[in-house]
Design a protein that fits this description.
Elements: E1 3-4, H1 13-20, H2 24-30, E2 42-43, E3 49-58, H3 64-72, E4 77-83, E5 90-92, H4 94-102, E6 107-114, H5 117-123, E7 127-132, E8 144-145, E9 149-151, E10 154-156, E11 161-164, E12 169-172, H6 177-213, E13 221-229, E14 233-242
């Protein structure tokens, strides 16, 4: 049965934008190594975004509910599309992408295929998909929009934060987004402080090495001794190198 939920909560965009700057791998580690969505997802071109999840469930080979989702979209959303059964058809092309961009949607995460990849790349519309496809969708029974959806290992709700880049796609629950961002900000400050310490240590080490190299140094000495073997037998003139 078709269902469209209105008025779902969203994560404030200032928190979403803060997570976008940190990347999916860092966010994944900061929240206890959870939240990765489908290791099979790949971007059609390198991009780094974050946004509120606009969930959409579709029938195999049918993109009708994506058209419904366009009308529910708000600026800062990322469309998250899940087929009810595995399907590799190309659910989205350049026309739907133009509609989504006009509504302020930042990108698409889909557990299926997309088409018109060259045009999508020229448009600058980021997509993370299961595969590239040529087969166009058809019209079948309606499903759901802005309703919780199930991904491999994840349960995505409208308004959860999606962080996507060339590494992966990561989910942050909207209740945890603010605390995760605060933790990441602290980690980032610690990393910057550590980087400054290493830079100072490197500069001191380099200057010390240069000072030492300017002084004359006997790199090695050669000494000669008599080595005696087997009691009476000896070998004279044996060289030993001392470094």
């Amino acid at each position: 049965m078709a269902r469209v939920v209105r008025g779902t909560p969203r994560t404030p965009l200032e928190i979403v934008d803060g997570l976008a700057k940190l990347g999916s791998a860092t966010v994944h580690e900061a929240q206890g190594r959870i939240g990765l969505m489908g290791r099979h997802l790949r971007p059609i071109f390198p991009a780094m975004i974050a946004g509120n999840a606009l969930t959409c469930e579709v029938a195999p080979g049918d993109n009708w509910m994506i058209h419904v989702a366009v009308e529910q979209a708000q600026p800062g959303d990322i469309l998250v599309v899940t087929p009810t059964s595995p399907c590799d058809d190309g659910y989205l092309g350049d026309l739907l992408a133009e509609s989504l961009m006009a509504h302020g949607v930042r990108g698409l995460v889909i557990d299926a295929g997309v088409r018109d990849v060259a045009t999508l790349t020229e448009m600058g519309f980021p997509v993370w998909s299961k595969r590239l496809a040529r087969r166009a969708p058809s019209r079948k029974p309606l499903r759901t929009c802005k309703h919780p959806s199930t991904w491999p290992g994840q349960f995505v709700r409208p308004g959860d934060v999606i962080v996507a880049d060339i590494d992966s796609v990561c989910l942050v629950r909207r209740e945890d987004a603010e605390s995760v961002l605060a933790k990441l900000s602290s980690v980032k400050r610690t990393k910057r402080a550590s980087a400054r310490v290493w830079q100072r240590a490197s500069s001191v080490s380099t200057s010390t090495t240069c000072a030492r190299s300017s002084q004359p140094r006997a790199w090695f000495t050669r000494t000669t001794r008599d080595d005696q073997y087997a009691g009476s037998r000896s070998l004279r003139g044996h060289a030993r190198w001392n470094f």
